[in-house]
């Protein structure tokens, strides 16, 4: 099996390829007001979903790379306290950090010096590829929710 193909497919999933739009395409078209609104019938605003995705992606990435990483408290530490960002600067910080971390994640997927099947030494059996696919899966799930909102 050609490992390059696996790496390319993981990057494709991480970047939002396939059956759905990319998160970057979706959120760059939103106003600050739209990001913080909870439509009737929805329990989260787009802001809450994107901030949750940022926190989770950062947590999984940090766990993968750093034996000393301490995850936020579950579940409250993974969600923002407010349904809307304080201001445009906060929204831009969240989206910027999300995409910067996503670039780091795709960098891991592309780095042929990293064995994707290797077990994370400080984990409990997790592999690098499992963590990358977990990020892709989690992001795709919440992207679906964002599109619904």
What does it look like?
- The chain is mainly α.
- The mean pLDDT is 95.
- The N and C termini lie far apart (40 Å).
- Helix 1 runs antiparallel to helix 5, helix 4 packs parallel to helix 5 and helix 4 runs antiparallel to helix 6.
- The radius of gyration is 16 Å and the shape is globular.
- The chain has a single domain, classed as Four Helix Bundle (Hemerythrin (Met), subunit A), CATH 1.20.120.
- It is built from six helices and no strands.
- The longest helix has 23 residues.
- The protein is 57% helix and 0% strand.
Spell out the key features of this protein.
149 residues, mainly alpha, Four Helix Bundle (Hemerythrin (Met), subunit A), 0% strand
Q: Strand pairing plus helix content: what structural class?
A: mainly alpha
Q: Superfamily at the CATH H level?
A: dinb family like domain
What radius of gyration results from the CA coordinates?
16 Å
| Low-confidence runs of at least 5 consecutive residues | none
The level-1 CATH class? Mainly Alpha
- Compute the number of structural domains: 1
Tally of helical runs? 6
Q: Approximately how much beta-strand content do the residues carry?
A: under 5%
User: In the CATH classification, which architecture applies?
Assistant: Up-down Bundle
**Distance between termini?**
40 Å
Mean pLDDT: 95
Helicity, as a percent range: 55-70%
- How many strand segments? 0
Order of helices and strands: HHHHHH
Shape: globular
The CATH topology comes to Four Helix Bundle (Hemerythrin (Met), subunit A)
The largest sheet, given as strand count, sense and whether it forms a barrel, is:
none
